Amino acid sequence: MTVKVLIPTPLQKFTKNQAKVECAGSSISELIEDLEASFPGIKKSLCDEKGKPRTFLNFYVNSEDIRFLEGTETKLESGDEVSIVPAVAGG
């Protein structure tokens, strides 16, 4: 199963400056593990010490926020697109 992952610019240093990568996983948590296996060190930037996505990063599956789905247990299917989007703040 292949899932396309859109990598934000600040994390592209882990993916050899690739904005899109393909990974495998049947859930977001498995996808994060596959990203770490392919691009060592990226998980520390994606997840906190407990393995949960960092609060300043949002994950979307086919444009749907995983916070409103099943979180890191959101199921993935071949061909899905996962976007990792840094939170934006300002005034």
TrEMBL record:
| Full protein name | MoaD
Q: Which PANTHER family match?
A: SULFUR CARRIER PROTEIN CYSO, SULFUR CARRIER PROTEIN SLR0821-RELATED
InterPro entries, per database record: Beta-grasp_dom_sf, Mopterin_synth/thiamin_S_b, Sulfur_Carrier/Prot_Modifier, ThiS/MoaD-like
Task: Tell me which domain of life the UniProt entry assigns to the organism this sequence originates from.
Answer: Bacteria
